[in-house]
Design goal:
Layout (H helix, E strand, L loop, with lengths): L10 H11 L8 H9 L8 E5 L5 H8 L4 E6 L2 H14 L5 E5 L12 E7 L8 H11 E14 L6 H10 L8 H11 L2 E7 L1 H16 L3 H28 L3 E9 L4
Parallel strand pairs: 1-2, 1-4, 2-3, 4-5
Antiparallel strand pairs: 5-7, 6-7
Helix pairs in contact: 1-9, 2-3, 5-7, 6-9, 8-9
């Protein structure tokens, strides 16, 4: 997590992302994507850490999957404030703890968590090796990673990819899926599983763009204004371009800290 990323998600973007994926969700697939990533893991009675928790919708899904308690962390003060208010309104403040953290080492003792979850947030972290070393440290022996993240194709970025970054207005630090796997291995993780879901999300992104130009158009215009509406439609069009070219490659990741 980086300082430059901390407040990049402005109010317009938060509004737009929730229009597409649902209230409380800032990443593709909304609650169903969380269930798909974490559903194969026994969360019963477990303490989970969600790194890059956003508005906390993800954490509520983890509770429905059996987690006893979820600690969500984010580097954005504005997002953390909104997430805390959402969790308070939901009556789950005793089971979900949202914390503002600084970029760098996690403020938790060794072996504090059973599960570490992430959903399309670690792409903002520049030092993947340091990140996974910290995840390994805070996981209990036998603990699991379950995450979704965005990867890149091998080679330098094309002009289309650079244009997508410009439209997003966010700081991305993407690596290839193979490099991701190496970082996990070097950190000490075993049973590493990496699933490229580019083909599926490519189709979903085109559907999202069609919704923005159709059923969501009136709401977007009312909430974002003419300039904001035009910007995000073009942003999504640029997203479909880099997905179609295979330059942006969403993936799902699972790994285990050895039990001994």
């Amino acid at each position: 997590m980086t300082d430059s990323h901390a407040e990049e998600y402005d109010g317009r973007m938060l509004t737009l992302l929730q229009m597409i994926w649902g209230e409380g969700y800032l990443s593709p697939g909304g609650p169903q994507a969380v269930r798909e990533i974490a559903g194969g893991i026994d969360l019963g009675g477990k303490h989970a850490l969600d790194i890059g928790c956003g508005l906390g919708g993800l954490d509520q899904v983890l509770l429905t999957l059996g987690a006893a308690h979820v600690t969500g962390v984010d580097v954005s003060a504005g997002i953390v404030e909104r997430a805390r208010e959402r969790i308070r309104r939901s009556g789950l403040a005793n089971r979900v703890d949202i914390q503002l953290v600084a970029p760098g080492p996690l403020p938790f003792a060794d072996a504090s968590f059973d599960i570490v979850f992430g959903k399309d947030a670690w792409l903002h972290i520049p030092d993947k090796a340091a990140h996974f070393a910290e995840v390994y440290r805070v996981l209990k022996p036998g603990g699991r990673i379950a995450a979704g993240d965005w990867m890149k194709a091998p080679g330098p970025y094309s002009r289309d990819m650079e244009y997508f970054f410009e439209m997003e207005g966010l700081t991305y630090h993407l690596v290839t899926l193979a490099a991701y796997g190496r970082h996990l291995h070097d950190a000490g993780f075993v049973d590493i599983r990496l699933a490229d879901i580019t083909r599926r999300y490519r189709a979903e992104a085109h559907e999202e763009l069609a919704r923005m130009q159709g059923e969501l158009a009136g709401m977007m215009l009312a909430e974002l204004g003419e300039a904001g509406n035009a910007h995000f439609v073009e942003d999504w069009r640029s997203l479909t371009v880099v997905l179609d070219k295979g330059e942006l490659r969403p993936a799902q990741i699972w790994a285990t800290r050895p039990a001994a």
